[in-house]
């Protein structure tokens, strides 16, 4: 087959194998190469195999910058999460990537550290690269960050919370309802002095606190002195300290709802050191069903949150939006599960 002098000239100028090179080697048009490598179903399977074989033989790597320039959108999805050290968000990202990658999109992750200013700066940086879509955690953003999202025109899905508002797409569950479910379980077990121990104090923790307040209020048991709120990052060490502080209260508490499992795990370990009988003397409940909670002694009662399902369904919703479609639901509630174990 005769070589295309224009393709050869471009290759010499940039040092890269181009889309035109692959098209020439496969004997198809450049647009067919583009569609085949994007995985579009309209392309004949035989042509797809021919294009992929040519691309592999030549060592072709698509140029995302060129594609973004041509389409005004890139092939990456900007994903903003608070932390990578929390298993909760690792599970979410794995599910997002598992769904987005076969569709031709890559997740570009930004870590906000629960800091509104960092989130705003990350949004500015990500939007400069023309992402095809956005995944953001929750709806509690600074006014400037929310303005960036709204003005960008980029399809956006909020995760970990249910947000029933016009024009907003979300996948999550009711943090408030989950918090209330924990309290009702403890009341059913005969507990009356139920403390709430919260760390980090992000929006979702405060929503669980609202559920705690509501359920105790309905039972006539709410006491604001039982709210133990610490803005420090959630950790096992902090959970141990909070347990010791709460145990000093008079009259004594008979249950503690920790806003995250790492706090509750630390409290259980501290209870062992203090020879405190759990759940006979004190019931302990966590949240998120993190790794190891079922192996604690006693095994930790907690709320299982479907992070994988949230990631998968958020990615599916975003793919529909990026393709110009309308998702069947704007607000998807995947629910939660109270996992009752030995600690309550």
From TrEMBL:
Pfam families: LacI (PF00356), Peripla_BP_3 (PF13377)
Lineage: Bacteria, Pseudomonadati, Pseudomonadota, Betaproteobacteria, Burkholderiales
Keywords recorded for this protein, A-Z: DNA-binding, Transcription, Transcription regulation
Keyword Transcription found: yes
SMART domains tied to this protein: HTH_LACI (SM00354)
Molecular functions per Gene Ontology: DNA-binding transcription factor activity; transcription cis-regulatory region binding
InterPro entries: HTH_LacI, LacI/GalR-like_sensor, Lambda_DNA-bd_dom_sf, Peripla_BP_I
HTH lacI-type domain: residues covered: 17-71
Name by which UniProt lists this protein: LacI family DNA-binding transcriptional regulator
The keyword DNA-binding appears for this protein: yes
Gene source species: Sphaerotilus sulfidivorans
């Amino acid at each position: 087959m005769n070589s295309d002098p224009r393709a050869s000239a471009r290759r010499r100028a940039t040092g890269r194998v181009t889309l035109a090179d692959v098209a020439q080697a496969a004997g198809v048009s450049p647009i067919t190469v583009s569609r085949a490598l994007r995985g579009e179903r309209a392309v004949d399977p035989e042509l797809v195999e021919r294009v992929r074989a040519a691309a592999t033989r030549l060592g072709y790597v698509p140029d995302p910058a060129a594609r973004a320039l041509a389409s005004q959108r890139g092939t990456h999805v900007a994903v903003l999460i608070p932390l990578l050290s929390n298993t909760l968000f690792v599970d979410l990202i794995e599910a997002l990537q598992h769904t987005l990658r076969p569709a031709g999109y890559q997740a570009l992750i930004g870590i906000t550290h629960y800091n509104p200013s960092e989130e705003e700066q990350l949004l500015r940086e990500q939007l400069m690269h023309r992402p095809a879509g956005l995944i953001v955690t929750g709806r509690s953003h600074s006014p400037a960050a929310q303005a960036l999202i709204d003005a960008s025109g980029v399809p956006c899905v909020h995760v970990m919370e249910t947000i029933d508002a016009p024009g907003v797409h979300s996948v999550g569950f009711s943090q408030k309802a989950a918090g209330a479910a924990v309290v009702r379980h403890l009341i059913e077990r005969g507990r009356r002095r139920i403390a709430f121990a919260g760390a980090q104090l992000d929006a979702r923790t405060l929503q669980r606190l609202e559920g705690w307040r509501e359920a105790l209020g309905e039972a006539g048991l709410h006491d604001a002195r039982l709210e133990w709120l610490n803005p420090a990052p959630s950790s096992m060490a902090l959970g141990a300290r909070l347990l010791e502080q709460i145990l000093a209260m008079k009259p004594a508490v008979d249950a503690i709802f920790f806003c995250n499992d790492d706090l509750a795990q630390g409290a259980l370990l501290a209870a062992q050191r203090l020879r405190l009988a759990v759940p006979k003397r004190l019931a302990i409940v966590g949240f998120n069903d993190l790794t190891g909670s079922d192996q604690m002694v006693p095994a930790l009662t907690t709320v299982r949150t479907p992070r994988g399902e949230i990631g998968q369904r958020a990615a599916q919703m975003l793919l529909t939006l990026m393709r110009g479609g309308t998702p069947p639901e704007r607000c998807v509630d995947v629910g939660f599960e109270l996992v009752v174990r030995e600690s309550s």
